[in-house]
Write a structure and sequence with these properties.
Blueprint lengths: L3 E5 L16 E5 L12 E2 L2 E5 L2 E7 L9 E2 L20 E7 L3 E7 L2 E11 L2 E3 L3 E5 L7 E2 L3 E5 L5 E8 L9 E10 L2 E11 L3 E7 L6 E4 L10 E5 L4 E12 L2 E16 L1
Parallel strand pairs: 2-5, 4-9, 4-14, 10-12, 13-21, 17-19
Antiparallel strand pairs: 1-7, 2-3, 5-7, 6-8, 8-9, 10-11, 11-14, 14-17, 15-16, 15-20, 18-19, 20-21
Amino acid sequence: MLSNEAWGQFGIAPFTATNTVQPTSIIDIAGGSAQNDTSLSYVHSDISIPAGTTIAWFNDNPGQPHTVTSGLSNSSDIGKEFNSGIIPYSAFFIYTFYKPGIFHYHDSLNPSLKGSVYVSSAFEVGHNFKLSSGAKLPAFVVADGQITWDTYKRDRILFNFEPTTVQADETTPLTYQITIYNDTKPIYSKAFFSLGNVFQFELIDSDNNKHQYTVQIFTDPITGAYNIQIPLNTGLYTIRAQITAIGSNISEQEIFDEFKIKIIS
């Protein structure tokens, strides 16, 4: 599998199914980003992902070329990890992060545009799922661990759920019920669909009181991560993941796990 590719695309539209690598998440280079007095940057500029995640950067800034170049503009390691070259308007660059660590990057044409990606190889194993995320865990394999997420440092965090007691091929949809609790009070619950053996969503801290979610659909059938945006205050939370149906068959067994998460906001 290639680790990075550059493609032409008109706007933030679905990827074609012929692409070698299908990204999980997107980062937007917003309109107006090339102006010297702008506060705009990559959106979102500081994210957390598990190792093996593919990111796509879209140039959504009309008439302005940009780059996605690893390292800071004044560092000696510019471009050693990845370098998109010129990304014209309506094109995109994709890259897969295999190694753990913090990867800073910038736009070599507009050095004020900066971002970072925190990549974690940590994971937690429950009774029915293996959970990988961009969060910090107390150990790489944890029987009953606690995920920690500082929302001041990272805008969003990506979670990968891999079933360990259910196997489905790439054409069989699985229905997931995701419920998030603050202590024992449910604050969010919704059903989602996924194909194959990986279900992914990005959890985003919201600054309002309304629950919001969007779906990133890159191809038909669905690939990519769902976005779940909810208000999150400092405290202890629980994420419950449950498979309620395999294809059109309702699961007769309770296939679920609960994972603890500590939010610092």
